[in-house]
């Protein structure tokens, strides 16, 4: 039973179950009783060997007490320590501790183990495709609004504000998915482009139109261009208003191209290159003092690019509502992209699908119209948002205005995470069954706790061999004299031997059969 579940204990299936602790307790009792019999016999036998020489008559009682239990054994060790029977007295005392040692041999340990579950018990959702019912107006070539995946847009907004949509896993308590699990999703990559962008800054005096230095205390208009080709603007009117925040972005033309985005019309087939990037946003924050005679104190420019990505998860664990992913590999720029289902007779490319692939992962697919819907929503929400200090806004800016007080990197990371979750829980959802953690009681054997039982058993065997040897070596101390009848049929008689100090212990029977026969034929009564 060592290192096995307690449920494997066969007696639990009996009509009258017996616990493993009860069995151990019974073994301890039987072991002690079994050892007591030879120990008592040996002490009584060695008593006769002891009295082959003259000793105090009171020593007879000391031997007799030692054969009865622990207290007598303690007295024996103090009164007659240098005798072979002292081994029996010591073993008698140690035998009292056999019970606790036997109980410590078996320990019950609770362990959490992973057992194979099913998709209902432990499920992790993922998807390799993202296809919705989005459709185009054949006459105008524009997307029909009510066909767009509004839940995806809701997931994007929730991600900006750090809210989570439904979880991609279900687990009753604690679960594990070894993986790998590969799912289609989106990824954002952000960087600080302040230094490189400010190097392109050009300002003009609003009145004269002449180029002025950025630090000039005059009303001016400034333009900047990011390394990715996105144009930024800022205005400053002395004593009136100035640009404090500017958020803009550009979708990458379709078919997706990986090239500067200043002139979209410059991308013509067949010179384009397919890319996983779909949208780039730039956040431009300008910190100005309240004193109009002072100029800009600081400018901060960040760029975030959203792209299609493959997520490779492995060593996934969960406990309650918490999920831990041991390893998360994001594959985006390494994806190879190809276009399929593009019908030349359909100028609107309604069925065109982009397939993303890389070594070691399955093909991932997104319908062109779905990708354009996502890019269009990003463009509408995060492009050309300007907040000017000193001027009351005349319009509501929507979701993107909240980014003025939020970290762009965190907001876009949250948005792409929720977009990935939405795809995993969408119409093309697949489920990976995991392993469920169960708490199982195991039986663990501590064999080192058997050291005392083994020592006591070995000492008893040694005592038995020693007693047999001493009895055979000593004339008159035959083995049968360990019987209680032998003591009854012995009597003390006067002796002329000066060593015996006037007393001798004698028996009239030399054969145990004669002793037994006499005991059966005699009756004895106590007389006061």
Automatic annotation (TrEMBL):
<keyword id="KW-0472">Membrane</keyword>
<dbReference type="Pfam" id="PF11374">
    <property type="entry name" value="DUF3176"/>
</dbReference>
<feature type="transmembrane region" description="Helical">
    <location>
        <begin position="76"/>
        <end position="98"/>
    </location>
</feature>
<keyword id="KW-1133">Transmembrane helix</keyword>
<feature type="transmembrane region" description="Helical">
    <location>
        <begin position="445"/>
        <end position="469"/>
    </location>
</feature>
<protein>
    <submittedName>
        <fullName>Uncharacterized protein</fullName>
    </submittedName>
</protein>
<keyword id="KW-0812">Transmembrane</keyword>
<feature type="transmembrane region" description="Helical">
    <location>
        <begin position="20"/>
        <end position="43"/>
    </location>
</feature>
<dbReference type="InterPro" id="IPR021514">
    <property type="entry name" value="DUF3176"/>
</dbReference>
